[in-house]
Design a protein that fits this description.
Layout (H helix, E strand, L loop, with lengths): L1 E3 H4 L9 H10 L3 E6 L8 E11 L7 E6 L6 E5 L9 E5 L14 E3 L2 E3 L2 E2 L27 H4 L6 E5 L10 H12 L22 E4 L7 E8 L8 H9 L7 H13 L3 E5 L7 E6 L5 E3 L5 E3 L5 E4 L4 E4 L3 E2 L12 E7 L2 H11 L4 H8 L5 H17 L2 E2 L4 E3 L8 E5 L1 H7 L5 H10 L3 E6 L2 E5 L10 H12 L20 H15 L3 E2 L5 E2 L1 H6 L19 E2 L4 H13 L4 E13 L11 E13 L15 H14 L6 E4 L5 E10 L5 E8 L1 H6 L7 E6 H7 L15 E10 L4 H12 L3 E10 L8 E10 L8 H19 L2 E2 L2
Parallel strand pairs: 11-14, 26-29
Antiparallel strand pairs: 1-10, 2-10, 3-4, 3-6, 4-5, 6-9, 7-8, 12-20, 12-21, 12-22, 13-20, 14-17, 15-16, 17-18, 18-19, 23-25, 24-25, 27-28, 29-30, 30-34, 31-32, 32-33, 33-34, 35-37, 35-38, 36-37
Helix pairs in contact: 2-4, 5-6, 6-9, 7-8, 10-12, 13-16, 19-20
Length: 803
């Protein structure tokens, strides 16, 4: 918003310099984005009066003038313009002046006649594009007056960044109040004096509000016998400084008061208001009106209108209509000053693509109490500048007056929240200067009545913010936040999940995040027996139930990738599966439950297509290895992969994943052909899915340090022939159990079937490492332990030592 410093000075004493003013306003939250000095480029240009003008002796198109520029002696200036007469006052650029167009004025002869300056047009001064002749100035100006002062350009315009929550600062009075607070000065609001006469306003116009929610207040004044004409120069100068184009005295007054109070006004030609009646109502279906910009607009019931007896006359809070606008023939003015619901104006403004000075303020919220003050101020100015007569009184329709908000400030909270102590008297003083009135005192607290203009103040924290910005953010000391001496440790599950992600990424799997909504048919194909949770308002049939497994999303990812001719897919997802209680929940048992799971999928070429190696396809061990990388990252030991059957898995390649205590985590294996066919997937898809709660509980996230071995290890190999269906895990478990503390590890390094091994049997070869943490083992001790292992494997597992 543009704020004129000269105008601002009418209401409050200003700091010594504009820079200091800008700094203080910025410090209280009204950031000054720029300073504009309109008269900066007009230094050296003064008002001059033409005393004499004669034909140039050597040029038909030039004249030689004698000029009074306020100095002791007249000046001789050669001029080429013809639009002036002797006695006119015009701008003179004196010797040494540099004009806005870059021309520097020097004493020089023009066709043999010396010229001591240059008489200027508006274009040469950078004021307009008019270059037809000299700029003729008002006759009352005194010669020698700087042209910037004469034209009202000796001003500084502040570009204020007013945040959306501070509509009270969208006016000169609003900013002046902030200056008074920042400098300790006194606000001097205007005191309009009305000379009323004639019949009262209530006899000249009727007001009816049909939508008191969107228009809670509507006030009007009538000014008669006005004479429409141009505004005085001072008014035009102030409007121009703020970027507003002067139009006529009546319209300019409404714009002036808007910039002064922040209260939008509108002037109607009362003689063109049918029935002398104003009706505030919603638009009717199919209704149209033409706004002041000349456009016909199709209206909707959400648009609020200002109407007369017959038709719409204004788009409420946004723009007036062309039917009743003030024109050169207007003699009776109906002055509107109203209050509108911000959300309603915002929607109308957006719908019609109209953003005006009025809508900008109404959208954010204006002071409902300023409705009357602004109307009185504008009526007084119109009477003064347009020679009008103000009808006594006003029509003020205010169906449901609302009391001002009240907010309580607890003084003990000031230092606790702001980090700086502000005494109770200072708190009352600061808030008092901002217009907050203390209405109730209590023990250690005060209740304040919030000014109507401060639509942003609703709670105690808002009062604390006011104290902080006025006391000064720079005065708040830098301190560490108070609270716990240390941060709470991160939950173990979060660390476990992070390590899980790192492990799977390291194994070549990419993470995906799928919707929790799936198709019921997919769950049926996977063979799930749980009843899913159905959605009440699904987006589609394909997303109508909550997933009971993470596999449907991964399989859809695979299907989409295959359709795009991808030759390798390796994905994982961690998230929740949802289950419905078959009995609908009983007692303390909820009707639904959520289980956090981890699932993965591998398919296609193991290493991608390259020229350096033969194409190898992913198999069961790729999926199992990815899951084992997670177990290794979490330091979960004793996990067993037990052959099993599960609905979604192929019987030939399916393992149940169990913890050492027998807790089942989930399954890993090849996808069942039935699922492949039902979901139209490629063959050889390998997946795993496990519950994370027991997995993360078994994780050993804090590393445990063990000393380096002090005594040497003894290595022995063991080759046993066992039944072909016997798993390595079972043999290894017996070795570790029987060996006890002497066996440090047992690693399988060979699996063999075929001659001379009998049919139905296989050979498993293990490298067993013996070590004692207390002493060096003797051959006798190792041999005894080794023999016990052989005996136990043979007896318990039906094995035999391979010859």
């Amino acid at each position: 918003m543009k704020i004129s410093v000269k105008w601002l000075g009418d209401y409050v004493a200003l700091p010594a310099s504009v820079e200091e003013l800008a700094r203080k306003l910025t410090a209280v939250g009204l950031e000054i984005e720029g300073l504009e000095r309109p008269g900066e480029g007009l230094r050296g240009v003064v008002v001059a009066q033409i005393q004499e003008s004669v034909q140039h002796p050597n040029a038909d198109k030039l004249s030689v003038t004698r000029i009074d520029a306020g100095g002791p002696e007249p000046l001789q200036v050669v001029c080429g313009a013809k639009n002036y007469k002797v006695g006119d006052k015009v701008p003179l650029a004196t010797i040494g002046t540099k004009l806005p167009n870059g021309v520097e004025i020097k004493q020089a002869p023009l066709r043999g006649v010396d010229s001591f300056g240059m008489l200027c047009s508006a274009k040469e001064l950078g004021l307009s594009e008019d270059a037809a002749g000299l700029l003729i100035l008002p006759p009352e100006l005194k010669p020698g007056t700087p042209i910037a002062e004469a034209l009202g350009l000796d001003d500084v315009v502040l570009e204020v960044n007013v945040t959306p929550n501070r509509p009270d600062a969208l006016s000169h009075l609003g900013v002046a109040r902030e200056v008074a607070v920042a400098t300790g000065g006194t606000l001097r609001p205007p005191q309009p004096k009305l000379a009323e006469s004639g019949a009262p306003t209530s006899e000249k116009v009727k007001i009816r509000i049909e939508d008191p929610v969107r228009c809670p207040r509507y006030a009007a004044r009538v000014i008669e016998n006005v004479k429409i004409g141009p505004s005085p120069q001072w008014l035009q100068d102030r409007l121009k400084a703020c970027g507003v184009r002067p139009i006529s005295n009546v319209v300019d007054v409404t714009n002036f008061v808007l910039l002064e109070y922040g209260q939008p006004l509108h002037a109607f030609d009362l003689d063109r208001v049918a029935g002398q009646e104003i009706i505030v109502r919603a638009a009717k279906p199919g209704e149209k009106m033409t706004t002041l910009d000349g456009k016909e607009r199709a209206l909707e019931p959400e648009d609020l209108l200002i109407c007369d007896r017959d038709r719409a006359q204004a788009l409420a809070g946004v723009m007036g209509g062309s039917d009743s606008e003030v024109s050169a023939g207007t003699t009776r003015v109906l002055l509107e000053s109203a209050h509108f619901q911000p959300s309603s104006i915002r929607r109308t403004s957006k719908r019609h693509g109209l953003h005006t000075e009025a809508s900008h303020r109404f959208e954010r919220g204006v002071d409902i109490d300023a409705t009357i003050a602004a109307a009185d101020r504008a009526a007084a100015l119109i009477a003064e500048l347009a020679g009008g007569t103000v009808a006594p009184g006003r029509v003020d329709v205010y169906p449901k007056p609302q009391p001002p908000r009240r907010v309580t400030l607890r003084y003990a909270r000031v230092e606790k929240v702001l980090g700086v102590a502000i005494s109770e008297p200072d708190c009352r003083r600061i808030l008092g200067t901002l217009g907050f009135q203390a209405v109730e005192e209590g023990s250690g607290q005060t209740t304040f009545e919030v000014p109507r203009a401060r639509v942003d103040v609703e709670r105690e924290e808002d009062l604390l913010e006011e104290l902080a910005r006025v006391h000064g953010y720079d005065n708040i000391p830098a301190r560490l936040p108070r609270g716990l001496a240390e941060l709470a440790p991160e939950p173990a599950a979060s660390e476990a999940e992070r390590r899980t992600r790192q492990a799977l990424s390291g194994a070549g799997l990419s993470e995906v995040v799928n919707y929790s909504f799936v198709a019921p048919r997919t769950l049926e194909v996977l063979g799930g027996k749980e009843q899913p949770v159905a959605l009440l308002n699904p987006l589609s049939v394909e997303q109508s139930v909550m997933r009971t497994s993470l596999l449907p999303g991964l399989l859809e990812n695979l299907s989409r990738s295959v359709r795009h001719q991808v030759d390798r897919v390796a994905l994982y997802e961690t998230g929740r599966a949802y289950f419905r209680d078959p009995e609908g929940g009983q007692g303390q048992r909820p009707a639904t439950r959520e289980v956090h799971r981890l699932a993965g999928l591998v398919w296609g070429l193991r290493g991608g297509r390259t020229w350096t190696q033969k194409d190898a396809r992913a198999d069961f061990y790729d999926a199992k290895g990815a899951l084992e990388s997670v177990l290794h990252a979490l330091h979960v030991e004793g996990v067993r992969f037990v052959p099993a059957e599960a609905p979604a898995f192929h019987p030939r390649a399916c393992a149940r994943v169990e913890l050492a205590d027998g807790t089942v985590l989930g399954h890993v294996g090849e996808l069942h052909p039935r699922v492949i066919k039902g979901l139209e997937l490629p063959r050889d898809v390998f997946v795993f899915e496990v519950d994370t709660a027991p997995l993360y509980s078994a994780a050993r996230l804090v590393p445990a340090w063990g000393g380096l071995p002090r005594f040497p290890a003894v290595l022995r190999d063991l080759a046993v022939v066992v039944p072909v269906e016997l798993q390595n895990d079972e043999v290894r478990r017996v070795i570790l159990e029987v060996g006890g503390a002497l066996v440090e590890d047992a690693l399988i390094f060979d699996v063999y079937t075929g001659k001379p091994i009998p049919e139905g049997r296989k050979n498993l070869a293990y490298a067993i490492r013996y070590r004692s943490p207390e002493r060096t083992l003797t051959d006798a001790e190792v041999s005894a332990a080794h023999q016990r292992i052989i005996t136990e494997v043979n007896q318990r597992l039906g094995g035999a030592l391979r010859a």
